[in-house]
Write a structure and sequence with these properties.
With about 250 residues, the protein is of the alpha/beta class. The protein contains 8 helices and 10 strands. Helix 1 packs across helix 8 (about 235-245) and helix 2 packs across helix 3 (about 110-115). Keywords: Hydrolase. InterPro entries: AB_hydrolase_fold, FrsA_esterase, Hydrolase_4. This is Lysophospholipase.
């Protein structure tokens, strides 16, 4: 069962989300952060959250600024906005009486949940799925536009069938992120999940995240999975692993 929710972003526009609610006993609550421009209904987001709900963990997944059903302009956002709005989503759930103990993030969202956990006192466990060690890794998606953006301030950006606008402040913001420090000072349990055959964000990123992390830390290899977890049962398998691993922290 999914409940449609809306809450105010840190920059003003209203964000749209879905809470996948367990049908039986609730073991705990979490928030999911989607990839770069993917949205709450992407395969990784929807399948992982639905499976976690089936395992008794209720999950909020939401569209970031200007994506899916959310208001605003994607071009006005940044990595820092994504981090802040993830923390705002946790605050929203906590205010609803659904105390969030778990953060899960896919790809760019995996980096975001590591950073956002620092602003979320109730969160005890963080799981990253196919996340980049340096959020600026997303530049590979728009590297041909960087020179134009730096000179003109913005440029049209077509990705995954979406026509977006990429602005200079996004590039400057993502380049300034020091995720290494955020990982080292996380002070929460961290699960790093990655596919050794991920051709979008290489497995080396998982190694760097894991090496920077302090215990309790865990690594699970998602053999056979692609970056977007679109194959049969790939996302569901990842969710089952997250469910078992996170149990002590719920």
């Amino acid at each position: 069962m999914a409940e449609r929710v809306r809450f105010t972003s840190t920059s003003g526009p209203t964000l749209a989300g879905l809470v996948d609610v367990p049908e039986g006993d609730v073991r705990g609550w979490g928030v999911f952060a989607h990839g770069f421009t993917l949205g709450k209904d992407s395969p990784a987001a929807s399948r992982i959250c639905k499976q976690l709900a089936g395992e008794g963990i209720g999950m909020l997944r939401f569209d970031n600024l200007g994506l899916g059903d959310s208001e605003g302009d994607w071009g006005d956002g940044s990595f820092s906005h994504k981090v802040a709005d993830t923390a705002r989503a946790v605050e929203f759930m906590n205010d609803e009486g659904r105390e969030v103990r778990l953060l899960v993030g896919h790809s760019f969202g995996g980096s975001a949940v590591i950073a956002a956990a620092h602003e979320c006192p109730t969160v005890k466990a963080v799981a990253s799925v196919c996340a980049p060690y340096e959020p600026a890794h997303v530049e590979h998606a728009y590297d041909a536009l960087c020179e134009r953006i730096e000179s003109e301030g913005e440029a049209p950006f077509l990705i995954g069938g979406k026509a977006l606008t990429l602005k200079r402040h996004f590039i400057e913001d993502v380049r300034a992120v020091d995720l290494h420090e955020r990982i080292q000072s996380l002070r929460r349990a961290l699960l790093v999940m990655h596919s050794p055959t991920d051709n979008t964000v290489g497995i080396k990123n998982a190694s760097e995240i894991f090496r920077a992390a302090r215990h309790p830390r865990s690594f699970v290899s998602l053999e056979g999975a692609d970056h977007l977890l679109t194959g049969k049962n790939q996302a569901a398998r990842a969710a089952r692993i997250i469910s078992a691993w996170s149990d002590p922290y719920l």
